[in-house]
UniProtKB/TrEMBL annotation:
Protein name: histidine kinase
Catalytic activity: ATP + protein L-histidine = ADP + protein N-phospho-L-histidine
Database matches in InterPro entries: BphY/WalK/GraS-like, HATPase_C_sf, HATPase_dom, His_kinase_dom, HisK_dim/P_dom, HisK_dim/P_sf, Sig_transdc_His_kin-like_C, TPR-like_helical_dom_sf
Top-rank taxon: Bacteria
The species this protein was found in: Neotamlana sedimentorum
Length: 693
């Protein structure tokens, strides 16, 4: 036997020199060929098997495994038998032969248990767990991998630990347990950094970011993606995959500037690449971005492309998103018939996906973990060779009469089954026809309801526009006319030379006040009419409240000085999440009101603070104050106004505009005032994007 083994090694050695240039493998092959002691031959052969496995030369490694297995069995060399069986199973796994792989792992596990080799047992459990996950037996795979991790996590076998953590994370991810998946992806990432496995880090970071996004923790997802951009090993393909994802996360925050930057990069990298899946994501995100920016023609072109591509790739997730975006686009363009069709497609596909998810959840929930112990590879082979003896049915009965009765009973049951099956099929077809008819009626009713809603909206809009027109003419004919008439009369006096220089200088403050009043009046009228004649759509972003205060205080500095009013700025650097331009209009109106109702020597104070996670803005004055009766009239839609301390006039629309703009941004506005003491107006705004129920 030894002579045969030596000849075999010489042959493999000759083949090895012609097929590989690896010096270590060649050295081991030469060393093996000239060794005489069998135990040394087994040890060297085992080193050679490991080296060949590491470089992916599985067929050649398997040749050494077969011969080494024979020799180690002849020597009853337990340690070698366990290692060789383990590597043999690894090779079967790589070749996709999971049945032999599982059998071999079970045998090697028994050998390692006999040797009390805890670490090797953990490695085997890890390998079995990986195979079970590949086969779809997630619970069983999870059980084996958890046992492996318990033994590996306090050792320095980092490669095995990396595989185990990643396998656990993938399994928990598939089982829809994101918290556990994130926990083990994070642990895997720490090990990968320790091992300097850059490519593994990239793959794990992608998984982590996707899970954070799934949990709507978009800031964490953005942080992971942006950290990945600093990874030197990030390939062009990785960036082509990353940019669409990162752009989409910024889109969730309505940060259109950053979203546009990364989506354009993703578009340029993916347009000529073979990875159509990433290009599909880019097109959907760009379509959503352009809908938000009201670039509807470009959005429609991009979404048409994404719909075709999603169907080609059979990407149901992105196709579902495409349907939703098309529904939104056609709703904005008032194409309600088409919007209804997209909505119907959306719900049909969503129903199909939910059914698949439900079926998969049931399959996972009802799957059982078998505890069959494959204690020996040889016994398994022995069982496979044993054939069961099947006897004819007649031998179970004592006579032909019994056999005839059994046949009669069998045919009777078969006939009954045929009758029942026919009845069930008939009932099923009838039920389907009823359901189909009901669905058609429901679809027609929904379509009619959508059309009626559209007509009602148009009617209300026309009535609203007509009311706005009447209010505008009324206001312009009174308040605005008075302010402009005063300015015109002053100019006529100047032109006629009816004013002396002293009179001219005395009247300048009044002229300035009238011009300011007219300007603020026009400003409020324009914003109010816009809010009444079309639906205002806020574009919320994070902005510094202190910056807005400083800008608006600077605008009224001259008017404060002319009227002899002091201003105190107690504002702090803090951020609110709202439409900045709308908040600027609110603050400008509140400052103008405080100025209007303050006297010489009074003080206006602006400040902000945080309360219950919200940003609270306040504008206070020590002016004339407001009576309780008038406080109730302030924020109504009808115009309500009083004369200022210098006979300033207004439209009475400023505070009603403020209320509408604040509420559009998910905020509140209120006032606290004491007659003769002063007033304080408060505005509450969110500090981050409100969550939708």
């Amino acid at each position: 036997m030894r002579i045969k083994f030596l000849i075999f090694l010489y042959l493999i050695n000759f083949i090895g020199f012609s097929q590989t240039k690896d010096d270590d493998i060649d050295t081991l092959a030469i060393e093996l060929a000239f060794q005489e002691q069998d135990s040394l031959k087994v040890k060297t052969s085992l080193k050679l098997i490991k080296s060949l496995y590491d470089i992916g030369s599985y067929d050649r490694a398997l040749q050494y495994v077969i011969e080494s297995e024979k020799l180690s069995n002849a020597l009853n060399y337990k340690d070698a038998q366990a290692e060789i069986t383990y590597y043999k199973s690894l090779i079967y796994d790589k070749k996709g032969d999971y049945i032999n792989a599982i059998s071999g792992f079970s045998k090697s596990k028994d050998l390692f248990i006999a040797l009390n080799d805890t670490i090797s047992i953990a490695k085997v459990n890890n390998s079995i767990g990986l195979i079970e996950v590949k086969k779809g037996n997630y619970k069983k795979g999870l059980q084996h991998t958890l046992v492996a991790v318990q033994h590996l996590q306090n050792t320095q076998h980092y490669d095995e630990l990396n595989i185990a953590y990643t396998n656990l994370a993938n399994t928990y991810n598939y089982l829809s347990k994101p918290e556990k998946a994130i926990e083990y992806y994070t642990k895997a990432l720490d090990v990968q950094k320790l091992l300097n496995k850059k490519r593994d880090e990239v793959a794990t970071n992608f998984k982590l970011a996707e899970l954070y996004s799934l949990k709507k923790e978009y800031r964490k997802a953005i942080e992971v993606y942006e950290n990945m951009l600093n990874n030197d090993s990030l390939s062009r393909e990785d960036r082509a995959h990353l940019y669409p994802k990162l752009g989409g996360e910024y889109l969730n925050f309505n940060d259109f500037e950053n979203a546009s930057k990364y989506l354009i990069k993703g578009y340029n990298l993916n347009i000529n690449q073979n990875n159509s899946a990433d290009f599909l994501i880019v097109l959907n995100h760009l379509g959503e971005l352009n809908i938000n920016k009201n670039r509807l023609i470009i959005a429609e072109k991009q979404l048409k492309k994404s719909g075709i591509l999603a169907k080609e790739l059979k990407n149901d997730k992105e196709l579902l998103r495409h349907y939703l975006l098309m529904k939104n686009l056609d709703s904005i363009k008032k194409r309600f018939d088409r919007a209804y069709i997209w909505q119907q497609k959306y719900y049909e596909l969503k129903t199909v996906l939910l059914k698949k998810q439900h079926q998969l959840s049931n399959q996972i929930a009802t799957s059982t973990i078998t505890n069959t112990s494959l204690s020996s590879f040889d016994s398994l082979l022995h069982e496979a060779e044993t054939k069961p003896i099947v006897q004819p049915l007649e031998t179970h009965y004592s006579s032909n009469e019994n056999y005839d009765k059994l046949k009669l009973l069998f045919y009777g049951v078969l006939a009954a089954l045929a009758i029942v099956s026919t009845f069930l099929i008939f009932m099923y077809l009838k039920r389907n026809n009823t359901i189909k008819y009901t669905q058609e009626l429901e679809e027609k009713n929904i379509k009619i309801e959508l059309q009626n809603e559209a007509f009602l909206e148009q009617t209300k809009h026309l009535e609203s526009v007509n009311n706005v027109k009447d209010k505008l003419f009324s206001i312009v004919s009174h308040d605005l006319k008075d302010s402009l008439s005063s300015i015109t009369g002053f100019i006529d006096l100047l032109r006629d030379g009816s004013l002396s220089r002293d009179e001219f200088e005395n009247l300048i403050p009044e002229l300035s006040e009238n011009a300011s009043n007219a300007s603020l009046l026009l400003f409020n009228l324009l914003n109010w009419s816009k809010s009444q004649m079309q639906s205002l759509e806020p574009k919320p972003t994070l902005f510094d409240v202190q910056e807005v205060f400083k800008e608006k205080v600077k605008i009224i500095e001259n008017r404060l000085e002319n009227k002899g009013i002091n201003i105190t700025d107690l504002s702090l650097r803090d951020f609110a999440y709202a439409d900045r331009s709308m908040v600027e209009i609110v603050i400008q109106n509140l400052l103008a009101n405080a100025l209007k109702f303050s006297k010489i020597g009074d003080t206006i104070t602006v400040s902000n603070h945080i309360s219950d996670g919200n940003c609270i803005i306040s504008v206070a004055d020590t002016g004339v104050g407001i009576s309780k009766e008038n406080i109730e009239k302030l924020f109504k839609n009808n115009s309500f106004t009083t004369i200022g301390t210098n006979n300033e006039k207004g439209t009475g629309l400023g505070l009603s505009i403020c209320k509408e703009l604040v509420e559009l941004n998910n905020g509140k506005i209120w006032v606290e005032s004491t007659l003769g003491v002063g007033s304080t107006f408060y505005v509450q705004l969110p500090k981050n994007r409100p969550t939708k129920d």
